[in-house]
Amino acid sequence: MASTLPGFAIVAGVVAMALYALTAALMVRDLRRMRHGPFGLIMTTALPAVLLHALVTWLQINQPQGFYLGFFAAASLVAVVMTAFVLASAVRLPVQNLLLLVLPISILSLIGSLTGETTFAPRQSLGPALLAHILVSVTAYSILFMAACQALLLGYQEHVLRGKRSLGMLRMLPPLETMESFLFTLLWAGVAGLTLAIASGFAFLEDMFAQHVVHHTVLTIVSWLLYAALLTGHYVFGWRSYTATYGTLIAFALLLLGYFGSKLVIEVILGR
Prior knowledge:
By secondary structure, this protein is mostly helical. It folds into two domains: 1-125; 126-272, no CATH class. Helices cover 74% and strands 1% of the residues. The protein contains eight helices and two strands. A hairpin with a 2-residue loop joins strand 1 and strand 2 (66-67). The longest helix has 36 residues, at 128-163. The chain is globular and about 55 Å long. It starts with 6 loop residues before the first helix and ends with a helix. Mean pLDDT is 86; it is low at 207-211.
């Protein structure tokens, strides 16, 4: 589907990648200086990149043949929503460091959008119920993706503190308790969205084998169970630290494998 994008969309995608890279370079510079620069400077480069990324994603999804939600378009949609969430959150919350993980993901998703092709057949129309399901699913995936990135930073922070190594990057991160609290806030929000996505998804499930969604359905439910167990364990038994980090990453890995793994195999590798 990359070939159906108009020329200005390809230019917009390239500019967005350049702005993402510039934003990442500014953040790496601040990391080396061990101090945050003005957030307004980050917004100056990152916000136009997100807007251009959103434009490219919309043009790829809204094809003349119908709505296209193939592997690369879906990945780009989740990436741009996640990046927008991080930027919006960073205005009031100490989550600016998440951009160091999110920006490369957005760049990769744009590369896929501009160069990748799949066998996904565009839908002529999306009913209100299906559109609501897609929006809820994308929101849930984006928030849980943010939670996985937050878990990586939290795991790194705890690893350094326990090993009594040089603080280095830790001077740029909020206190451990703040990092952990924000992680579970993301998990609660993400799991609430995932619950709605799973419930609404069953309305469109007729034959999971014929629709090639058996792996997606099973892995998504297993992921939800792991998230639910992690949240229950945290608030009942006080689970935290490495348990929270590894639990979050394992649950998200299953979620990622269930949806994007299945789409990658079916649409890109097998070409069905």
